[in-house]
Amino acid sequence: MPDAITVYSDYVCPFCYLGRESLSRYQADREDELEIDWHPFDLRANKRRPDGSIDHAVDDGKDDEYFEQARENVRRLQERYDVEMTLEIAMEVDSLPAQLVSYRVKQVEPYETWLALDEALLAALWENGRDIGDEEVLVDIATDVGLDAEVVHEALADEDLRAELTERFDAARETGVTGVPTFTYEGYAARGAVPPEQLERLVEGA
Questions:
Q1: Which is it for strands 188-191 and 34-40: parallel, antiparallel or unpaired?
Q2: How distant, in Å, are the alpha carbons of 26, 123, 140, 167 from that of 131?
Q3: 169, 119 in Cβ contact below 8 A?
Q4: Which pLDDT score is estimated for 62?
């Protein structure tokens, strides 16, 4: 089986998008295939209302200064990795629906199909500014990569799947993951949108 790097991430994290660009560059220069073992992480857990909207009144320790610094870091990494982004921060988007669909597809479809969906979700949000928390948007993205629309509808309606995904969120935190992206390989970890050379050291030096 191909070698794999574990990636903890949430689609609404701009650094996860940028970190994947870094990983793609490392993968392109690597002689042997390196797959992505995606582990979901929920950045909105404490701020999500029952209807999926985001309650910004909840104090999570992230103030205006934090977000301004985050935007500066996003712009710096955009320049470093030479990528175009329509958004710098996705404040109002809830990624839970996208994570549900991605998690289901990862379970039942070949790796290449999941990867195509995963990349399309990231591009839809960060390159095109689309709301990946919207069911119709998710149907468009899924069908564009060759999936049936029912995959989206069934995933979003599956309460058992939702409970299982929540367990995966909890498991990530119990593992010690406190922020994303977090890349792990054979017991070693790197956090943040680290450069390709650091990912190479993580994998090749482990």
A1: unpaired
A2: 29, 11, 11, 25
A3: no
A4: 86
Burial of 109 (0-12, 13-18, 19+ CB in 10 A): middle
CA 153 to centroid of chain Cα atoms: 20
Q: Which amino acid is at 154?
A: E
Q: CA 26 to CA 82: how far, in whole Å?
A: 15
With a threshold of 0.85, does the pTM exceed it? yes
Q: Which residues of 20-43 are buried (b: 16+ CB within 10 A; e: fewer)?
A: bbbbebbbeeeeeebebebbbbbb
* pLDDT confidence bin for 124, thresholds 50/70/90: very high
Give CA–CA dist 93/173, Å, rounded: 22
Predicted local confidence at residue 2, as pLDDT: 84
d(CA 128, CA 143): 17
Block residue for tokens 């921060």: 89
Tens digit of pLDDT for each residue in 37-82?
999 999 999 899 988 888 988 988 888 899 999 999 999 999 999 9
Contacts of 122 (CB under 8 A, 6+ apart): 11, 16, 17, 20
For 62, other C-beta atoms within 10 Å of its C-beta total: 12
